[in-house]
Amino acid sequence: MLVSRPYELLVVNSKGRTGDTKEWVCEVLKYRGASALLCEFEQWTVPRFPLNGNILKENGVPGENTGCGLKSLRTRIF
Predict the structure, then answer these.
(1) Nearest to 74 by CA among 43, 45, 54, 48
(2) Cβ atoms 50, 57 nearer than 8 A
(3) DSSP SS3 for 44
(4) Cα angle for residues 50, 54, 55 (degrees, 5° grid)
(5) pLDDT > 60? residue 21
């Protein structure tokens, strides 16, 4: 197993759409000639974050703090 973790974190923590970021990383790996790493990365599935704003609201988090709360949790998990 190669070390694709930094690329995975780049996708998970991106502010854009994860699909677009994953495609961009694949292009970078092709450009670098890292075919083995590219193969491993292409097989990786982006994990779905288990929480959303509705779940936080149902559990008492005020609406104005939902975005900050999600961002904080996401940073700690990934």
Answers:
(1) 48
(2) no
(3) coil
(4) 50
(5) yes
Domain ranges of the chain: 1-47, 48-78
Q: Give the span between the Cα atoms of 16 and 4, in whole angstroms.
A: 20
Helices 35-43 and 18-32, axial angle in degrees (round to 10): 160
Angle, vertex CA 57, rays to CA 64 and CA 19, nearest 5: 80
d(CA 60, CA 23): 37
The pLDDT tens digits of the residues spanning 53-68 come to: 888 888 887 777 777 7
Long-range contacts of 50-56 (CB under 8 A, 24+ apart): none
